[in-house]
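Sorry to interrupt, but I need a hand with the structure work. Could you write out one complete protein record for me, on any chain you like? Could you add the entry underneath, on a fresh line?
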Amino acid sequence: MSLEKFIEDFEDAVEDVEPGSLNAGTVYQKIAVWDSLAVLTVIAMLDAEYDVRLKADTLKNCGTLGALFALVDSLPES
């Protein structure tokens, strides 16, 4: 798994995010369209694309896309 692919998948999952607009340092909770639906969509994307199951609290605590990627990359597949 690469960080670039992970960010592309994140951008695809969250509605109204411009492709190529995010990077590893992006604090995703500060994205204008970040809401409860975006949280659920990202959780579903992580499950479907990476076979990783995260809770909303875990997602909330990561902060940046780079930190979220590092967490997902470090977890064994479910």
User: Anything to note?
Assistant: Helices lie at 3-13, 36-50, 56-62, 65-74. The mean pLDDT is 94. The domain at 3-74 is CATH 1.10.1200.10 (Non-ribosomal Peptide Synthetase Peptidyl Carrier Protein; Chain A).
